[in-house]
Amino acid sequence: MNIVILTGAGISAESGLATFRASDGLWEEHRIEDVATPQAFRRNPVLVHEFYNQRRAKARLARPNAAHQALARLGADPRHRVTLVTQNVDDLHERGGSTGVIHMHGGLETGLCAACGHRWEAPAIMGPYDRCPACARQATRPDIVWFGEIPYHMEEIAAALEQADLFAAVGTSGNVYPAAGFVELAAAAGARTVELNLDASARTSVFDEARRGPATQVVPQWVDELVG
Ligand code: OAD
Predict the structure, then answer these.
(1) Ligand 1 pocket check: which of 5, 21, 71 to mutate, most ligand atoms within 8 Å of Cβ?
(2) Same domain? 100 vs 120
(3) What's this model's pTM, rounded to 2 decimal places?
(4) Rounded to whole angstroms, how far apart are CA atoms 21 and 16?
């Protein structure tokens, strides 16, 4: 079976990483427009780097949980072709054993040169005055897709959605497009759709099935059903 899975911040919540839209979520401490737009970065690159440096430090201390591990188990099942797309910028899927993860919103573990496009392994602390290892210009930015920018790997994701027999969204509130629209693309391609989330999302009504609960419980159960 061709399975496409979209994950969001909820899958990493039980690893101790804050989600974005909960009452204690990240954007309340930091207004979104102060950190996650190209304009914010132009206005205050030091603040934006600091925000992501903190998130990188937290992500490095976090450990993958049973939900990340269950999805890796599903990905390793030879009976299925699994495309794992994440909106998360942490690397907990990889550390949980998944390979080929598509990071549509970028990642904390690479730096990106805004001048030449070169990417490199991120040090713990990055700043706007770091020089690009390739072109030596001082144009280092986090390798994160900000609001107003185009997510990465969209063609590959669209191709996988067109082939999908089953689409699952895990731990995402369904507020941010284009990811929030993947359920319709998969359904239009004939896929069955299932949402695995702690509570109702903005898109719940569009899914064929919704399973409620913490990711560390509902995801391993769902994977057991598919893997047997
Ligand atoms: P949100 O914070 O918007 O949503 C997280 C979802 O996870 C919510 O629906 C929660 O109910 C659910 N949730 C919380 N804890 C959970 C748990 N233990 N098990 C299962 N579900 C749980 O995060 P995203 O939907 O991922 O973009 O946000 C999408 C994008 O918005 C992010 O990638 C980020 C942000 O702006 C960028 O940084 C570009």
Answers:
(1) 21
(2) no
(3) 0.96
(4) 15
User: Buried b vs exposed e over 51-66: b needs ≥16 C-beta within 10 Å?
Assistant: bbbebbeebeebebbb
Number of helices followed by number of strands (H, E) in the chain: 10, 9
Tokens of 82: 């699994």
The HSE-up count of residue 48 (CA atoms within 13 Å, CB side) is 23
Cβ-count burial 20-40 (b if 16+ within 10 Å, e if not): bbeeeebbeebeeeebbbeeb
Identity at 181, one-letter amino acid code: G
Q: What is the pLDDT of residues 63-112, one digit of tens each?
A: 999 999 999 999 999 999 999 999 999 999 999 999 999 999 999 999 99
Residues identified as active-site: 105
The answer to whether the CB of 218 is under 6 A from ligand 1 is no
Residues in a beta bridge with 168: 5, 194
End-to-end CA separation in angstroms for the chain:
14
Three-state DSSP at 211 gives strand
Domain residue limits at 29: 20-61+108-144
Q: Is 179 helix (H, G, I), strand (E, B) or coil?
A: helix
Q: Do 174 and 133 fall within a single domain?
A: no
Q: Do 71 and 135 have their domain in common?
A: no
Cβ atoms of residues 36 and 144 within 8 Å? yes
From 11, 12, 15, 20, the mutation candidate for ligand 1 (largest count of ligand atoms within 8 A of CB) is 20
Q: Residues 133, 51: one domain?
A: yes
Label the pairing between strands 192-197 and 106-113: unpaired
